[in-house]
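User: Could you check the structure of this?
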Amino acid sequence: MLKTQVKTFSELSLQELYRVLQLRSEVFVVEQDCVYQDIDGKDEKALHIIGFKNEKIIAYTRVFKPGDYFEFASIGRVVVAKKERAFKYGYDIMKVSIEAIETHFKEKKIKISAQAHLKSFYNNCGFIEVGDEYLEDDIPHIAMIKK
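Assistant: Sure, the predicted structure tokens are below.
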């Protein structure tokens, strides 16, 4: 079972921050073979949703209030460790992320920039595609909205 915590940047311990950045790098840089600037200066503004299994960080997102990333509230850096994906923890971390936006920001409308191959996953989380696909860091993406 996934245990989750919602923290501001200043509430993250150094070890948690290290483990989060390690997980993001493991998936977004190494697994996806994509060289990009993950540490983008936006983490300080975000709420961090951390998923733990057996005290190890295996899932994560960061969420933003409207105007801090997109016009609407947003969820980004959605990641689950490769060996844990079969357990569908992506749905758990997204549910907690959506609830965090509703609780902390009093918002319902959420925009994401989703990797195009994950459209059906995000559809199942209540998001619908808006606009055409585009490249972000050489990976096909699509904007999606949850109302």
